[in-house]
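Q: I'm building a small set of examples for a reading group on sequence design. Run inverse folding on the following structure and report the sequence directly after it, with nothing in between.
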């Protein structure tokens, strides 16, 4: 096994003083001990004790998205806070695994350090690279070799696309899957073919809602969404960004509605809500939002 310290002894961030390193390690150790206390059967937190690796997965995803949102905002305090929340999820997962003897935070940190060393032979070895593309190609080739898989160029397309479907958010996965399929020629001849497919899937979804089982309805909904994503791809649009913008506008309009209301929105009739909605929409349009 690679000895990480052999590579890093003189290459550690020189910008960090010895005291900074000691304080950072102490802070990490404090977090580890806090999480262990929360998970302790003797005086721990009932909520934390009830969690499993599986029940925490929604929080892992949620915290990752909140980190991205904070980075986009440029608010350094928010970024640091959200990164802390994400780090908590890593430590919690490690604590839960260590309780049953599976692995610990030590294995996690050693593993990622060794992986980075293996996959950067141009930094920690004697390999030369001339571009970022070469770095990426080396990474993928080393990754495939580690997993006992064919080289990226030799892998079947279905294997690559299956990985996208398992590991990426659904909208992102659907876009990448369709892009890769189109790249090998599995594509409509023109945009009219995409629109025809959209209308076909819309009709099948409507029929499923009327006559089919919930499982079939869910499947047809997925097909319809996939068709919408194809339209977005053909027009060079980002479906995730589009939906995110719609979510934000919906919330903004609700905020405008609540700002002029003297009672909860639930106390208003549907006609009154629609009127407030249109007013909010017009006001935001005037403001350029």
């Amino acid at each position: 096994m690679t000895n990480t310290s052999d590579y890093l002894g003189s290459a550690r961030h020189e910008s960090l003083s010895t005291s900074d390193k000691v304080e950072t390690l102490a802070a990490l150790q404090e977090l580890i001990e806090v999480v262990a206390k929360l998970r302790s059967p003797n005086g721990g937190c009932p909520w934390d004790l009830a969690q499993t690796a599986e029940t925490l997965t929604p929080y892992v995803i949620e915290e990752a998205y909140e980190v991205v949102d904070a980075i986009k905002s440029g608010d350094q305090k928010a970024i640091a806070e959200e990164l802390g929340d994400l780090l908590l999820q890593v430590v919690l997962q490690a604590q839960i695994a260590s309780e049953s003897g599976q692995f610990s935070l030590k294995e996690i940190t050693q593993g990622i350090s060794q992986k980075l060393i293996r996959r950067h032979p141009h930094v920690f070895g004697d390999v030369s690279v001339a571009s970022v593309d070469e770095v990426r190609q080396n990474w993928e080739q080393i990754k495939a070799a580690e997993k006992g898989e064919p080289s990226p160029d030799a892998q079947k397309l279905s294997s690559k696309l299956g990985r996208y479907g398992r590991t990426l958010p659904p909208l992102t996965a659907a876009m990448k899957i369709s892009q890769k399929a189109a790249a090998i020629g599995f594509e409509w001849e023109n945009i009219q073919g995409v629109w025809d497919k959209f209308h076909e899937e819309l009709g099948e979804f409507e029929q499923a809602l009327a006559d089919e089982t919930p499982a079939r309805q869910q499947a047809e909904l997925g097909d319809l969404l996939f068709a919408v994503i194809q339209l977005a791809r053909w027009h060079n649009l980002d479906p995730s960004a589009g939906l995110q913008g719609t979510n934000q506008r919906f919330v903004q309009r609700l905020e405008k509605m609540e700002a002029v209301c003297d009672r909860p929105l639930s106390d208003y009739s549907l006609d009154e809500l629609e009127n407030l909605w249109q007013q909010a929409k017009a006001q935001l349009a005037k403001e350029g939002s």
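The two ends are 56 Å apart (CA to CA).
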